[in-house]
Amino acid sequence: MLLEDKSVVVVGGSSGIGLAAAELAKAEGAAVTIASRSAERLRAAAERTGARTVVTDVTSDASVEALFKTCGRVDHVVVTAAQIRSGPIKTLSIEDAKATLESKFWGAWRVARNAEFAPGGSLTIVSGYFSIRPRPGVAIVAAANGALESLTRSLALELAPVRVNAVSPGLIDTPIRAAMPEEARRKMLEQTAAALPVRRVGQGEDIARQILAFMTIGFATGSIVYLDGGGALV
């Protein structure tokens, strides 16, 4: 197993990409800790994966500090946490724009600042392909993703020899889509799939496999991998 005797912390791992990454790390032999702000979702994730869970709010300095005091030195950390509020720049409130950065960008910053890594350790950040393929109404998300990718490259130098990489997903069919009416969700996914060269949307496991690769390939650092089904090309 690729992660036998390794410890992995997935921040934002109670659903979606984070949960898929936690499940894969567990299957590869790691001792996994899942951190999320939702105690209810953490209970479900613990039942599903057998992982340890810690309630954590990435918008709180104290909460992130407490997480890594609890975990101690770890081998690999994954950050997928994000509480996104987006909309057109003329109508999105400054408070909502700041809240998106507070969660998605500053949350990752707090994790990088507080985590203590064992030799050979890695940090993997999940950004998003709006950084290179924006569209109207998502400027704040695109900006956060671009900032995370710049942060990744900088931290690969500053935290060396800890390896720091980022995965930038395209459209992924995760539980966040469940908030949409089912018919609208199905239509949106079908239309997106038809436009992509791979003719399907992504799944959490697609991104989790790249995260696993970053954990285990010791020559990878400062890398940004775009997994978007060819979305940046069309």
Write the layout of secondary structure elements.
Layout: E1 7-11, H1 16-27, E2 31-36, H2 39-49, E3 52-55, H3 61-71, E4 74-79, H4 94-114, E5 117-126, H5 139-158, E6 163-169, H6 182-195, H7 204-216, E7 224-227
Parallel strand pairs: 1-2, 1-4, 2-3, 4-5, 5-6, 6-7
Helix pairs in contact: 1-7, 3-4, 4-5
Short description:
This protein is α/β, with parallel strands linked by helices. It has one domain (7-226): Rossmann fold (3-Layer(aba) Sandwich), CATH 3.40.50.720. The chain contains seven helices and seven strands.
Describe the structure.
It is a single chain. The protein has 234 residues and is an alpha/beta fold. The protein has one domain: 3-Layer(aba) Sandwich (Rossmann fold). The protein is 44% helix and 18% strand. The chain is built from 7 helices and 7 strands. It has helices at residues 16-27, 39-49, 61-71, 94-114, 139-158, 182-195, 204-216; strands spanning 7-11, 31-36, 52-55, 74-79, 117-126, 163-169, 224-227. It has a 7-stranded parallel β-sheet, sandwiched between helices. α4 (94-114) links the parallel β4 and β5. α4 (94-114) packs parallel to α5. The longest helix has 21 residues, at 94-114. The N and C termini lie far apart (38 Å). The mean pLDDT is 95.
